[in-house]
Amino acid sequence: MEVKWLNKILGKQNQQKPHIADAVAFRDLGDWVSDRTKAELGGFFESAAQIFAEIEETKEELIRDIESLKAAEPPELPSRVVRVGFAARDSMIKQINVMIDRISTPAMDYLDIMEFYRSIDTALDSTIEKSAKSHHRAKYLFPKEVGAVFTDIRGIKISLAKLRDLLDREGAKIKGFDELTETIQRIDDINRDIVVGNSNIKKSGSKTDEIKREISDYTAKLEQLSQSEEWSSFVELEDKLKEREMEANNIESNVTELFIPLNKALNRMKKQSESGRYTLSRKQKELLDVCLENPISADVADANDFLIEMLQIVESGALGLKDKKRDKIVDQIGQIIDSFAPKKERYDALKSETREIEHQISDLTISKTKTTLERQLAEKNREIARIDEELDNLGEELKMRSIELEDLKAGLSDAVNLIEPVQIVFD
Question: What is the H or E stretch that residue 107 is in?
């Protein structure tokens, strides 16, 4: 917290008045600062009140002089000149009345006083500028009355200048006391945030304990399932299912590896078909995409027909492959034609067995119970992970707020002790 302003203003005079530091509870510090503010700045507010009394008095005089201007009779002049003068007078009075309506003594608060000065000073300058032409025309008809009005306006302007000088002299001191009050409020806010944060940590801890008890219950129920009569049948079926799935996945990977060497030729066929060099049927285009993306899903007969067609295209040289590359692809197509059918047949059989085993498992009561318990267990573990992450984030935030709080306390103590030796007792 910045305390140089107090050091400059109060430091030397307080060094000349050493005395034993009093203890002030933090909860009472706001009142303590308010009392010291009144003691240090009482003269400022008294002077400000006197200036506002001057402004109010001048405003009332201005209102009376405007009424006199309204009632004034013009001298004998050509009617055209009189009409112009009356219009100018009415316009000028209207603009001045708008400004008068804005003059209202503010609360005896530095910021309110500063805002009053800025607002009225700007309004006054704007009124003078806008009414300049009307002023001169109206003054031609009513020199005495218009002169009195503008004497009043100048009087308000002079009072505003005095207010500005007062604000300039005392502004730094006032701002400093305001900063003390703001720091006290910030400390209160942080203390409240820390209390709320610690309460949330406690609640989250209780929630975590509750979830852990639920997890323990679900785990115990799963353990009980393993002791049931259906468990051995369930485990046997799950083992069979895993075996079938593993074998099917191995066949799928093996078939994919068989087709990978054809990718270059297949992609060239696709580009040439798209460019119109030769035409593939819709079914052949679909099979080409299947061979590139998921060859195990192809029908055996359809795959063989497509591979034979591909073999002819490759051997014709239409794909522009080098001899060595072309020969390798021809050999690879032969290998696929020889081996794809038994692999596909075994793969389909495994998939059929897998579906049957899954159906058998789903018919077991224990399967549904196990699935439900595992889902509930996963949900609770995710909830625990989420709460742990929130607690970590909240802990880091509270740590930072605590550091900020100690810095503010130290700065506040330094600033207060420049006013008067005081030991602040923080709750």
Answer: none
